[in-house]
Amino acid sequence: MVKKITGMEWLKKQIKKLEITNSEFKEKTQQIIKIDPNVYNEFQAWTPLKLILLNYVLDVCTTIIKTKSFFKKLYYIDLFAGSGINKIKETTDFFIGSPLIAAFNHADYYNEMLFCEKNDLFSETLDLRLQTLNKKNLFVKKGIYENYLNEILEKVKSAKTYSFFFIDPNCMEFTWDNMKKVLSTKSDIIFNFMSSEINRAVGYAKKRKGGNSLTKLFGDTSWKKASNHEDLVEIYKNNILKERMDAPIRIIKVRSKKFHFCYHLLFITNKTKGGNSWLRAIEKAKKEIEKNSDKAVEIALDIVKKRQSELSQF
User: Whole-model pTM?
Assistant: First the structure.
């Protein structure tokens, strides 16, 4: 029997897939990172957990979908794409960003991969980086996602079309009106719900009797019923179910032990006749990610990059 990989071993294995000096794409990445080497997205140590989930879920979904002859067109859409390269703050650790996770692993299976990025420097650099892959189906949309969303939705609404959306806003930039549009396409979706930040905004709004941004995020004033960030996630989930009834939703909590911070990643899919048995793979990733935190990522990185060899020394 093959031994199940879990805990720190699982985390180390996933990190190796994305850390630029360990990834199987390290040679390509070393070339890509030479393009505007000072241009990258800088994040905290919990960010790799989000990238791990994207890599894992996209691999599961694409593996299934590419075997289905029903679908004639496949689209991958990243609405907050960034520069393609991520750096962990206060370290020299670089990770493949969401556009490269998708393009390296799955570009050959999708008719188009569309990457929206509002930051001019990031979008221009991402475009140059993706051009090195010599793929004709990778398109960077320079500017805010709202400039392109209706055009994208027209593509993915076509008959016999599959689409996967990765929606990773800073906080509340993705409005409910736009979420409703994406939900209506029956796409698979990973959405980053910035729980702690949103909860702080709720506290502030209740004191100041404001909250227009929150109402735009939720589509109504349901956020006012929340007492904590877990309530907010549940309210948002219920609003999704009003739009896509019976949608299987898996919620993965990402924690920072250092900063007492969290966010929740929502994976939203469609109910199938077979009962979505494949979701067990997603539940495995959920279980492993929720075991870990930014501290675990730091430890795993130290081991993977041979800065530390023994867990017992922590």
Answer: 0.96
| Apex 38 CA angle, 118 and 15, nearest 5 | 85
Q: What confidence category does residue 309 fall into, taking pLDDT thresholds of 50, 70 and 90? A: low
Q: Which domains does the chain have, with CATH numbers?
A: 7-309 (3.40.50.150)
Q: What is the pLDDT of residues 30-70, one digit of tens each?
A: 999 999 999 999 999 999 999 999 999 999 999 999 888 88
Count other Cβ atoms within 10 Å, centred on residue 309.
9
Calpha distance 62→222 (Å, rounded): 35
Task: Give the list of residues 6+ apart from residue 99 with CB closer than 8 angstroms, or none.
Answer: 78, 81, 82, 84, 113, 115, 126, 129, 130
Inter-helix orientation angle 47-65/294-304, to 10°: 80
Token pair for residue 59? Answer: 């691999």
In angstroms, how far is the first alpha carbon of the chain from the final one? Answer: 31
Answer for the pair 58, 93: CB distance below 8 angstroms, yes or no.
Answer: no
- Segment holding 142, helix H or strand E: strand 138-142
Tallying the residues shown for the chain, one arrives at: 314
